[in-house]
Amino acid sequence: MKEASVVTVMLTVELLDVIVNTVSKAAMRKGMNDFVFVMYSNAFAAFFLFLVTFFFYRKTTRPPLSYNIVGMLFVVGLLSCTNQMLKFFGIGYSSPTLASALSDLIPAFTFILAIIFRMEKLDWKANSTRAKSIGTLVSIGGALIISLYKGQAMINSDLSLKLFHQKLASSMEFDWVFGAALLAAHSCFLSINFVLVTRIIREYPAELVVVLIRIALTSILSVPAAVISVKDLKELRLGFNMELIAITCSAIFVLSFSGVIHTWAMGKRGPVYISMFKPLEIIFAIILGITFLGDSLYVGSVIGAAIVVIGVYAVIWGKSQETLEEDCTAYSSESYATEAPLLQNKRMGE
């Protein structure tokens, strides 16, 4: 698949994540428990992926699972469950704005971990390395500008300004330090998750099976937390309402579809490439907020969005240059291996 096609798919996945997250927040505002949402969405996704995997591998041989792969999948499932819990707890103690700001650290954490585990090359003489490193820092800076700096309103909305000031006043009551620590841990664990999944999928190239096992383990591990968090077991019941729509959308589009695409892309491009698209979620959220919710557009959002796009483009360019260099090296090696015996035979004939 060409680079442009991969980028298009990744942009579509991130846009779907933002849309489904908006629907999920609407359901949670109506009183749905966060942990119950995590449990049911993962359970629905596991059931959906089980059906897809069953029909896909009905005529195809599935790679054999080793104890090493199963062990790593268990760790990934535990991290996935912990990540979702940390995110909801962190937002509860701070705010969604702080959550967006600290999630922009995911590319930095992932880049460092990928270098430590030798999944990314660090050769400062190569243009590809410089482009990826600088692009990562630039995109993080742009995303932080969007999250923390507003400036003057370019498209003003009185309702949006009123709600913003109300949220700002009420947010002072939260324990921001503790919330920030939880959200930073979420970003770090998600980066570890990216690195582990990349290693798994390169050793066990079966995206559907990997995502199915991970989601199934996450669903099982989230059951105790969901049961403990509710005051009455009746809260675990689902009805035909907004909550069911949000759970179904999250299960199919985010956990299943996006999960498989992310896992596939990690095996092809590596964990850093995937993490670089995370800051773009803020841009999509701003566009959707202005279009459908009547939010205001601020100067900081425009400047930050432009910087994020430049940073992401630099990383994509660096990654494409790295792939091109590897292809050229492989071609040179093959050419040398083919020509060497011919030269040797020619000399012997002389």
Automatic annotation (TrEMBL):
It is found in: Membrane. Keywords: Membrane, Transmembrane, Transmembrane helix. The chain crosses the membrane at residues 35-57, 69-86, 98-119, 131-149, 176-196, 208-230, 242-265, 272-292, 298-316. One of its GO terms (cellular component) is membrane. Residues 17-147, 178-316 form the EamA domain. Belongs to the drug/metabolite transporter (DMT) superfamily. Plant drug/metabolite exporter (P-DME) (TC 2.A.7.4) family. It comes from Flemingia macrophylla. This is WAT1-related protein. SUPFAM superfamilies: Multidrug resistance efflux transporter EmrE (SSF103481). The lineage of its organism: Eukaryota, Viridiplantae, Streptophyta, Embryophyta, Tracheophyta. Its main location: membrane. It is a multi-pass membrane protein.
